[in-house]
Amino acid sequence: MTKELYLALADFDEEFVLETLKTRLQGGEPPLSLLKELQKGMNLVGERYEKEYYLSELMLSADLFNRSMEILTPYLSADKGNFIGRLLIGTPRGDIHDLGKNIFVSLARAVGFEVTDLGVDVPIETFVEKVVEFEPDILGFSGLLTPSFTSMKEVVDNLIVRNLRASLKIIVGGGVVTAMVKEFIGADGFTTDAMDGLNQCKAFVGVS
Amino acid sequence: MAQETMNVFERFAAAVSLSEVDRAPVFPILVSAAPRLCGITQAEAWRDHNKAREAIIKCYRDFGYDFASKPNFYYDQVPGKLTGAPVRNLIPGKQLAEDDVIQIDERPLFSREDYDKIAALGWNAFWEEHYEKMSGRPFSDLVKLQQFGTKIFNEDLKICEEQGIPILLSTTVDSVMMAFSLSRTLIEFTKDLRQVPDKVEKAMQKASEDLISNALEMLRDRPRKGAFIVLERGSGALYPLHIFERFEWPFLKRYIETFVDEGITPWLHLDTDWSKNLPYFKQLPKGKCVADLDSTTNIFRAKEILNGHMCISGDVPASLFSVGKKEEVVDYCKKLIREVGKGGGFMLTSGCECPVDVKRENLMAFVETGKNYRP
Hints:
The structure holds two protein chains of two kinds.
Chain A: H1 5-10, H2 14-26, H3 31-51, H4 55-72, E1 85-90, H5 99-110, E2 113-117, H6 124-134, E3 138-142, H7 147-161, E4 169-173, H8 179-185, E5 189-191, H9 194-204
Parallel strand pairs in A: 1-2, 1-3, 3-4, 4-5
Helix pairs in contact in A: 2-4, 3-4, 4-5, 5-9, 6-7
Chain B: H1 8-16, H2 33-37, H3 42-47, H4 49-63, E1 88-90, E2 103-105, H5 114-135, H6 139-162, E3 171-174, H7 176-184, H8 186-195, H9 197-219, E4 226-231, H10 241-261, E5 265-270, E6 290-293, H11 299-306, E7 311-316, H12 318-323, H13 326-340, E8 346-350, H14 360-372
Parallel strand pairs in B: 3-4, 4-5, 5-6, 6-7, 7-8
Antiparallel strand pairs in B: 1-2
Helix pairs in contact in B: 5-9, 7-8, 9-10, 13-14
């Protein structure tokens, strides 16, 4: 019996997922329907994470989803369907940690966010420029080192001065982030858990 | 100042052995923060170990905590041997900006095919053979670097001791799982655990022998014997317990039992959330080691589980040190002393390393509360 693509993704059957994607694309299957199956798989991972999966499994599924998207993206037109919201994210200057951010980005893409990932060690001015250019609904900061909190605050202060703060929600994530850090930065949300962060972002754009 | 009846070594030993103390030991793990607190950059401290040492000594004296963490930014090593993964560190002033904090550039150092080789050769011989292939530089370069680091570590340690500065950490050793995870990267290692578990296990069994004997060799001539075991990648936050039981616990237990037999105090530096793993620690020798929590594990729950069996240290959060208010630091430290310190077996420390941007008043509040608050 052939395994379903979404189940294979949720079970981290790497070989099956990547081969199936290639075969079905070559067979002329619409890429958008394949994307929906992958998204269904990531939703299942999310459900399992609440009950049985651990962070390592979330990480593996995010990695497999990313590699699936590398295969799928060239076949997708510029209009990839309806996004549920725009999300801009990055790790501020002085910090190169990106594991949690990368997991979060994959999860966000899987549920339908249009994500611009600025990467790591991102200068303050770049965040501000990209907010102007990309007009996100949500700005996400990721950071593991405490000096990045000051950089995040500077970005937020800069956005306030330029009247850009009110139009977007801001969330900060990372291993040492607390409510105190959220208050210090002036963010709307904080998290130490990628799935919890995703749920907050969905709530920010009115998706349950 | 509340009356003290023990010196720092007596107090430390009493806390570890769960005996009565005049007060809980109080000290941050403070290395990277020292230069900034003394007005120099991270890069200056890396370039000039004398400046790093002087900053560490000045902080110890200015703030008055019980132990300094290290004598400088370098590590004591046995040249030609490793007590962890030879990760690529990004150094301030070289690969990073002048006042950035050292970070690891995590990338695969060996491939899945190398597990069999490690199982055959062990950790030491494998790296002697593999290092050049991995880094493009001869193994002798690593040995020279280790010789240099060890030489200035020992010189600065001696200077600190002569000036009456007690140093807490001498030997640092990765847990076996930590060493392998850092060598493969977290994602690739997780795949290995699922796809080639037997190969990983065999390699770990062989590697653990060298990792333990390398640590013992480093500690042989040390007057005070403590092994700082770096644990992060095997916790119940990352993996289910069956993974911990097979790939972390047996080796960690062997580390600890060997160290304790040799009169060494194992300091389990537990980054990430170890709540699910804590009950296993009750199998370790009673009153011989320290569970050092980073503020991610619930320290109050840890007290309930390990009370009367294992000393707990922690866990003032990095964010509290860097963006909190002085009063908040005082309140949290008092809570720790009251609840986790009740009945002994507690040290008031920073959760992981004290952050580089710690507020001076918060660090002082941490020390003063630790020294003076008696519930």
